[in-house]
Amino acid sequence: MAGAGGRKGPFRVGLVAATAAGRRHARILAAAWPHARLVEAESVAGALRAAWRDCDAVVAFLATGAVVRILAPLLGDKHTDPAVVVVDEAARHAVALLGGHAGGANALAAEVGALLGARPVVTTATDAVGLPGLDTLGWPVEGAVAAVSRAILDGEPVRLVADATWPLPALPEHVRVEIAPPSTDPAAPEQGESAAGWRILVTDRVVPLDGRTVVLRPPSLVAGIGSSRGVPAAEVTGLLRRVLADAGLSPASLRCLASVDLKADEAGIRATADAYRVPLETWPAADLAAVDVPHPSEVVRAAVGTPSVAEAAALRAGGTLLVPKTASAMATVAVARHAPRGRLALVGLGPGAADLRTPRAVAELRRAAVVVGLDQYVEQIRDLLRPGTRVLASGLGAEEARARAAVAEATAGHAVALVGSGDAGVYAMASPALEHADDRIDVVGVPGVTAGLAASALLGAPLGHDHVYLSLSDLHTPWEVIARRVAAAAEGDLVALLYNPRSRTRDWQLGTALDAFAAHRPPDTPVGVVRNASRPGERVHLATLATLDPAQVDMYSVVVVGSSQTRVVGGRMVTPRGYRWRS
């Protein structure tokens, strides 16, 4: 569920309705969202004001004009006001009225639309034209957000200067991206360039702001904390604030605080992490003792089992020490800068139909700066890609090359989406990609609807009990191995989904597999064939082990072989959930 500007705790959605139809729509949302509730009061206006006061977002089943008149006197700041979505009486439209992308209203409108079958109405300029909002990247942002966003929209030259290659979304071509090492001043204009140009700076350093500059704060800093038992929170917080200020570093770029695990329950350190809204990560003393630090201490070793806490904890996951340990009476702080990690999203696009593509898959495609995939799959989702997205498409048979290319782009620090049909982890690109991915990148798996699930839904309920996925392609697996697996599935009385069942050059494997099933199941065992599930030319055919003609099957088909318990009921293939068939 979408988040809203700066609020802590569970996300709360207030639902306000005036009519029976509105309350009916509201109940659908309340059933789907654990933190949503219908807000009621003596009047609809009172309920709307209460939802505004108590919730992070409001979905109002009212007229837009009425909502505007009631809420207008309450408006404060877009970064703290609740998001507001208005839905009409017939639930045809979900209008993102207040909060846009910064407050989460645009995303909330999309979620409301998905649940109610309503069309999301979004008027935020960047969202409308497919550009990433500078305040929607999940990082703190400072400066002239509106002015620079308008410059991007107007196609004016914008200079993005980052202190490293961070996994940012795609940006249009008129945004010139440069990498400036941290030792240089990213705010300084190039020789011959006007200081008045539009700029986006991506840095953890404190830099001067003006009316033409936006600063994105990447999560690059780790503060190592050591302390005596019972250290006051004010001392830890004050020392950390002073250390960052003296080094010219922004607290908005803190990724986490780090310490030895003996300090995991230290109230003063935990309170400091809460104050900065970052997690506290702790490590065993033995792990910290293995980290090479510039200022080890035998006194510290004797006390906690490692010669360094602050410096070692700051460096534990790698990085460069920026601020050596600095001590107060009861606390010690050190700060390290950690290199950015690339991002690899493994995205399953589903079986083909756009409405079987998950919202999470769409979000990852729009977040990516680089999309890698089979050319025919990339064509299915080109309309979802943001302007400036770099596409690496290739033809059939290049799976290994695509996997290596995606990992290489992510390792270089980019935000990458590697796409495939169905689910990325089922006979698709997740496995070859993860064979090459190491701990230098973050990996995000995005589940997808498999062809087997789409076929099962069209056939009825053949997967009601234990089942197995099998590929009959011997391009990567010897047929002897496939045959043993088919025999085991047949003997185990498992429903079998057969992928890659038959091609022009592999025309005998399916018949051989069906013979193996027939040796253990009655000849009237149902067999379903679904071709082009959810795609143009979709075809569903029901047969039996005795009657299925393998010549009707090709590589666009999924074959589902029932177990001995599978039946055809009302023209649908059904496998009972229990071991006894209940008539």
TrEMBL record:
Return the EC number: 2.1.1.131
Identify the residues that the record assigns to the Cobalamin synthesis G N-terminal domain, covering every copy.
Answer: 48-127
Swiss-Prot/TrEMBL GO biological process terms:
cobalamin biosynthetic process; methylation
Q: Which UniProt keywords are given for this protein, alphabetically ordered?
A: Cobalamin biosynthesis, Methyltransferase, S-adenosyl-L-methionine, Transferase
Q: Pathway of this protein?
A: Cofactor biosynthesis; adenosylcobalamin biosynthesis
| Protein name stated in the entry | Precorrin-3B C(17)-methyltransferase
**Natural source organism:** Micromonospora terminaliae
Give the CobE/GbiG C-terminal domain ranges: 221-336
Ranges for domain Cobalamin biosynthesis central region come to: 137-218
Q: Which InterPro entries match?
A: 4pyrrol_Mease (IPR000878), 4pyrrol_Methylase_sf (IPR035996), 4pyrrole_Mease_sub1 (IPR014777), 4pyrrole_Mease_sub2 (IPR014776), CbiG_mid (IPR021745), CbiG_N (IPR021744), Cbl_synth_CobJ/CibH_dom (IPR006363), CobE/GbiG_C (IPR002750)
Q: Which domain of life is it from?
A: Bacteria
SUPFAM superfamilies xref list: CbiG N-terminal domain-like, CobE/GbiG C-terminal domain-like, Tetrapyrrole methylase
Q: Which GO molecular function, any one, fits this protein according to its record?
A: precorrin-3B C17-methyltransferase activity
Residue stretches making up the Tetrapyrrole methylase domain: 343-548
